[in-house]
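FORM 7B: Structural annotation worksheet

SECTION A. Query
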Amino acid sequence: MIKLTECPRDAMQGIKDFIPTPKKIKYINQLLKVGFNTIDFGSFVSPKAIPQLQDTAEVLKQLDLSTTKSKLLAIVANTRGAQDACAFDEISYLGFPFSISETFQQRNTNSSITESLVRVEEIQSLCIKHNKQLVVYISMAFGNPYSDVWSPEIAINWCKQLQQMGIKFLPLADTIGCSTPENITQLFSALIPEFKNVEFGAHLHSTKQKSLEKITAAYTSGCRSFDVAIHGFGGCPMAADDLTGNIATEDLESFTTTHNIQLNLNKDELEACYSASWDIFNNYH
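SECTION B. Predicted structure
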């Protein structure tokens, strides 16, 4: 069984044209009908940092959660954002991007790695108080375009430190699309057997040509939690000017079909999502 997180937030955040709020609401409501485990739907960050997501609270108010089994995840970058997100009972997960690249952590959250560890502690306390789960993304887990030192051992050691802080959800985030089957295998094979009480996920970015080999490497290494985005849209605007998209939902679906793995998704509603997505991604850039 694979746990899928669909990421319209990641797909939309790098689009410069403002997508009208009603269109976001309509699209995410369609995604809620599919049966994904989680929808990464928005973020509580500075509108100056990510203008596209300044309407997250307004979108949330119009989501139909009456029949969905999907849980909602919102990204936060600091304690203030976490406080805002915790005000909504509808949100089950708070996601915090923890970069193991000092340069990118400053660029993404305007804080150092040391300061971010303090934020993780503060946000974790808020999550416990408000009955939510904290998901800490290990950003730049597979390398970075800066001069910061990277190695699999550095990524593994940060995962260990966060696990010791009580974090139980640690997706390994590619961020810029530099992961390979080799380093994917190395990280997941080292972490998953050692930490039985942690859910390690794959938040991979990839070109279309390399997505299948990355999915295969992660799954073969024991990963059962994947972040995807319809048509592979998305990317981190704080990392690079040329965005490398997310793993496409349809590529993960194709992989599971080939290997007879059940996703338990409503295929008709998923097809409707594939069609509906073009109304956004063909018209806003």
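SECTION C. Observations
The longest strand covers residues 91-99. Residues 3-281 form a domain with the TIM Barrel fold (CATH 3.20.20.70).

SECTION D. Sign-off
Analyst initials: ____
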